[in-house]
C-alpha cells in the first residue's frame, strides 16, 4: 500500500474518465481508434468500469467509467475502486473529473491501496497515480497516512494491541514528529487522581494507563481525547459472544485521534496540540469493578455503576477532566461509545455533539472531505436520566432510550472550564468493502475536523 502519489512521471499512462451521460461524444473526442475499441468491448462509462486501450508497442491509455451524477452521489471515493481494478502501472489523470471532485478522487485512489498485511503478506503491485494538478498533494498524503495509522491500530487484534502496545504506537508517533509524551500507569493512576481509569483497567494483566502527548509550543491549544479500550469483555456484565467479536475495535477513538494528530503534525499547524488516551482493557478478574459500585472521579463527581459494560465514558471522564483543567481553545473527544448511535445513524455516519456552533457548522461540511457526519443534540431535558440520586451520575441509565445522547451528556459534565467541547460517537469499522474502504477498521470524523478546525482556531 502507498500513502503517497507516484513521483516518476516517465511512461505514465493517460487515464481518461468517462461519464455515462455523453459517453459516445467523450470517446469520439479521444479519436476513432479509442472509440472503436470501447465500442467493441462494450465500454459505456458505467461507474467503476475500466478498459485498457492497447497501442502497437504497449498501452495507449486507460478508460475509467464515472457513471452518472446520481450514481456517484450514492457513494464516495470512486477513485478508490479504480486504483484496485486498473492494471499495475503509473497513471496520470487526463480529464473527466469535475474540478470540485478531483481531490476526493485522488484521496480515494490512495485510500484504495490500503491492505492490512501484518499477518498475511500481500505483495501484489498496485496502480499508482501522479498527483493531479490543482490539489494540495501534501494535505491529501497526510490524510491518507493518518487514516492508515488509524486502520492499522484498529485492525490489530488485542493480543498485539493491548494498553502497553497502544502506548508503543503513541510513542512511535511522538518520536516521528518530535512530540513529548508522558504515561501514568497502574497504581500511579490512583496516586495522581485518575480513579476511574484505574477502576476500569485494574482487572487486566496489561496495566491501565493514561497516555499524554504534547506537540508545538505556540498558538492556540487543541486537546484531543480518545477512548482506548483495547478490548471490552463487558466486565462483570459480560458481553455475549456475538457482541464481543468486534471488541478489538473499542479503541477506535484512540486510533482516530492518533491519526488526526499525525495529520495535524505532518502539516505543521501552528498550534499547541495535546493528545490524551486512557488505555485500558475491560477484563474480568477477582478485582473487577462491580455493578452498584460508586466510583470517585478526577472531577470530584461520584458515579454509580449500573453496567460495567458502559466503561468507555468512565475512562474518558477522567481524561476530559484533566484536559479541562487547562481550558484549551477546543476539546474534542472521540469514542466507539454506544450501540445506540449505530441504531440511530448506521455505520457510515459519524454522529457528533458540540457546544461550539461555529465548529459544529464546519464539521457538518465534512462531506466535502468525504467524511460524512451528523450533528446530535445535547438535549438538556434528559439530564435527569443520568442522575441516580445515590451518586452524582449514573453510567448506564435505565430504560434504553437516547443512549448516545445520555452518554454525551455524561461526558459534558466533566468539561466545565472549556467553552468549546465536541464529542464524536463513532463506529470505527467498515462492515463490508466499499471503494477506498476495505472491510475492517476505519477512521471517522478526522478529515471533517481537519477541514473545520483551521477556521475555529484562527489559522486561516
Verbal overview:
With 460 residues, this protein is of the alpha/beta class. The chain folds into two domains: 13-135, Leucine Aminopeptidase, subunit E, domain 1; 140-456, Aminopeptidase (3-Layer(aba) Sandwich). The chain is built from 16 helices and 19 strands. The protein has helices at 23-29, 32-40, 69-73, 78-85, 102-111, 137-155, 163-177, 187-191, 195-201, 241-244, 252-266, 312-324, 339-345, 357-363, 403-412, 446-456; strands at residues 13-19, 50-55, 58-67, 89-93, 127-129, 180-185, 209-215, 221-226, 228-232, 272-282, 294-296, 302-304, 330-335, 350-354, 373-375, 393-394, 421-425, 429-430, 440-441. Strands 6, 7, 8, 9, 10, 13, 14, 15 and 17 form a nine-stranded mixed sheet that branches. It has a five-stranded mixed sheet with strand order 2-3-1-4-5, sandwiched between helices. Strand 11 and strand 12 form a beta hairpin. Helix 6 runs antiparallel to helix 11 (252-266). It is elongated and about 80 Å long. 52% of the residues are buried. The model has no long low-confidence stretch (mean pLDDT 96).
